[in-house]
Amino acid sequence: MAKTTAKKTMAKRTAKRYWLRWLISWGILASSAVCLAAQEVEPNAPTLRVDVNLVLLNVAVTDNHGNYVTGLRPSDFAISEDGIAQKIATFGEGNGPQLPVEVAQQQDGKPQQVGTTGGANVFILFDTSNYMYRGFALAQDAIAEFVRSFDSSERLAFYAYSRDLYRGSVLTADRTQVLRGVRSTVAGDDPALYNALLLTLKDAGRYAGRKVVVVFSNGPDRASMVAPEDIGELAQSEGIPIYVVSTHEAKLDPASETVFRRLSAATGGEAYLARSWRDQQKAFASIRRDVGHLYSLSYYPQANPNHGWRTIKVKLVGEAAKKYHIRTRSGYRPKPTRFVEEVNPAQ
């Protein structure tokens, strides 16, 4: 009987992981830039469009004391994918606009304001499970202060989770709407953090530009059907850093603490163990500073025969390489090329 139960459990886990990898592979949860494929076509023949991934990187650069380094240029960075050198397509710093690299490298250091805005889309995910009965109001206060700390260039969304996901506020620049969502939450059922993260990443993937997910969690996950490893891979493939603020209860659950640290490190975010209300405030303030100091780099991948996991390495060059440190995601899994039939304008 025990062997039969174990086999059934293993089969369920395999099926869940296959399901999520299928979603990742076919881009149901992915965002990408779309460009036209140059092809020889006969008159009146359909034109085919090809999806091409634009890989977006959020990069934190710090000195030996942990201070953020500003004023770097595209020429200070070198990117490789599976050892293949890449050409930077766009570049931005902090909340400034993300610019075509040719513009960002102008000699006067004051590029014209063109390109997409640099403000991040911040998705806040709050644990309202039955593990949050103690300190619930204080956690709400810390999140509310975090929301108020952002300037007008960022847009925020507020979600809460226990067994189910509650979308308290869609992505918006209206802080009042977000704060209303924070104050409307109540403590509830068993926590299903990774299920909630899956849905949050799916929502975030629908928006262009920089995106980050900030999780406030009390630690354990008791009800999810999704493995944290798959969530980490999806977040990396989407280019979305995950920041985790966890209460002191997570220390009683070493497995959760380990997962949080691995998940944040792999995606380019950070994890904080906040043992008190003041620690929670400090953690959110640190995340706010980090989001405001990230460099945004993007590139169109050079020809690469690897259709599986691709490893990304970002390095500093010249004098910067000797003094500073980099934090960013470690790779991604490209979705397969898809062809979409389009009416030929010649018809």
Task: Give your account of this protein's structure.
By secondary structure, the chain is an alpha+beta fold. Helices cover 31% and strands 27% of the residues. The protein has helices at 2-25, 101-104, 136-148, 175-183, 193-204, 228-238, 254-267, 277-292, 320-323, and strands spanning 33-36, 47-52, 55-62, 77-81, 84-86, 88-93, 99-100, 121-127, 155-161, 165-172, 211-217, 242-247, 271-274, 295-299, 310-316, 325-327, 331-332, 339-342. A 6-stranded mixed β-sheet has the order 10-9-8-11-12-13, sandwiched between helices. A hairpin with a 5-residue loop joins strand 6 and strand 7 (99-100). Helix 3 (136-148) runs antiparallel to helix 4 (175-183) and helix 6 (228-238) runs parallel beside helix 7. Mean pLDDT is 81; it is low at 22-43, 45-51, 107-117 and 339-347.
